[in-house]
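hey can u check if this looks right to u? its 375 residues, i copy pasted from the old doc so theres a chance i mangled smth
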Amino acid sequence: MKINRLLIPAIIALFILSGCDHRAELISVVHEDGSIDKSIILTEVDSSHINENYFGISPKTGWAVEVKRVESLDDDENEEPLQDLRDSVQTEKKTDMQIIFTKSFPSVESMNAELNQPVDTLFQVEAKFEKRFRWFYTYLDYSETYRAADRFRVVKQADFFTKEEYEFIQRLPARGKKVSAADSLYAEALNKKIFDEYSMEGIIEEHFQFMRESIVKYNLGDDAVKKLEDSRPGIVEILTESDDEQGDDLVPTDDDLYLLELVDSLVVPLPRPQMDADYIKFNDEFEKRLNFMSWVSDGTFTQRIEMPWELVENNADSVDGNRLTWEPPLMRFLLTDYTMQATSRKMNLWAVIVSGLIVILTLILYVRSGKKTNG
């Protein structure tokens, strides 16, 4: 990632304007013994995702892979205005690559070991399985949680978002469902706040945190950090303004090291090239996290869970028998974790039989006892 005058607005524009360029569907078939048959379907991707993807899965880790072409979901409204003039011309339908990963796990613990790795550049999903015995019924509780996709480490959500905004996010309906005009306006404003303000500050603050730590590391003076903070508004303005606005460069620029050039010129002389290597290492790691967040924002995610018994409780967007579907909008798991849960149950016939026998035996003893008393 290049830190230059045009980078930050470009990244924010990427978050806001990027369409749903890929689709991810996660399917879990839950068995009563706690084993899980897992499928992850990636659509509108390329073949590189077979071995490298943001779920961290591949044939190398035991996943079976099937690749096929499916009809594209591109809207007809995206066609050229003169499409009607070509109606008589036979055209080939657009198709997208689809990669289907499947693997069976003996337990949620083994599945979590693969899909819930504490790695900032992976999509993290945590599953929980619990079986509860309640005499006449056995209950099975199952849930999967998408970990928040926010990968900024320095900026704090609490400085930007209110309790009411988090509550609004929790109330959001399934993707594509209609909301009131008021909620639509509120969601639009919140989305703008997330990407224009929070994400912008997250990008800037991570780089300034690197500079603060480097100033301390290289003993550049007790007042250097204060000078950096005092110069921050001017540096940010230079980083985010266009070439036309800036005119002549303040310093000769190497785009990859432009922030260092600015600090070296405006704040304090830096130990170059030692800091160059540090910055490139930091920037490479940060770019990977930023690319992950961009990938999440570019996609749509669908979760399906099939339970083994009769459903008694769930928070799914739709239900078909014992099959549940969730279609969360991005905002549901961008800032906070998003949990999808279901409870099913089966009747314990043996418990019913035992209870019946106990009742019958009790009645027999009662009748006999009554006869003896009367006798």
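Residues 7-74+93-349 form one domain.
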